[in-house]
Amino acid sequence: VQLQASGGGLVQAGGSLRLSCAASEVAFDSYVMAWFRQAPGKEREFVAHITWNGEDTRYAASAEGRFSMSRDNSKATASLQMNYLKPEDTAVYYCAARRRFKVVTPGSSTSPHIFDFWGQGTLVTVSS
User: Fold this and answer.
1) Sequence-separated (6 or more) residues with CB below 8 Å from residue 115
2) Can you point out the beta strands (E) in 13-66?
3) Which residues contact 13 (CB under 8 A, 6 or more apart)?
4) Per-residue pLDDT of the chain (128 residues; tens, 9 = 90+)
5) By CB neighbour count within 10 A (0-12 exposed, 13-18 middle, 19+ buried), where does 70 fall?
6) Pick from 18, 24, 128, 29: which is nearest to 79 by CA?
7) Measured between alpha carbons, how far is 128 from 61 in angstroms, rounded to an integer?
8) What does each C-alpha distance from 103 to 26, 99, 116 come to in angstroms?
9) How far apart are CA 42 and CA 19, in angstroms?
10) 3-class secondary-structure state, position 113
11) Smallest Cα–Cα separation from 95: which of 64, 62, 125, 71?
């Protein structure tokens, strides 16, 4: 599956952005989708993921209560609504996908290493 992330930009602290990830795969509901981010000089970190049917989401502690991930399987898209943005949210945001039936060891569900497909990233810059 090919992924195309969009929606990044420059926003002031406290503002909002909505990121989108468009997938080329017609069987989009075969995939668990996730968002990761990578700030300059730092490792890529988990932000959120959503199950194949959209019924369950999980967020990093830094995103909990401010970010909301959703998906529309009919349109093969996943989104990340980001509210109350902070300067420390500045990073390149990547959408990622893994097949829903992929065996995942306990505790690894938020690791970037279990995701097989990645978008090109979209830059989010939050000014103070």
Assistant:
1) 34, 36, 96, 97, 98
2) 17-23, 31-38, 45-50, 57-59
3) 85, 86, 87, 126, 127, 128
4) 899 999 999 999 999 999 999 999 779 999 999 999 999 999 999 999 999 999 999 999 999 999 999 999 999 999 999 999 999 999 999 999 999 998 888 888 999 999 999 999 999 999 99
5) middle
6) 18
7) 21
8) 22, 9, 12
9) 21
10) helix
11) 71
**Tell me, what amino acid is at 114?**
I
How many CA atoms, within 13 angstroms, populate the side-chain half-sphere of residue 74?
0
CB 46 within 8 A of CB 110: yes
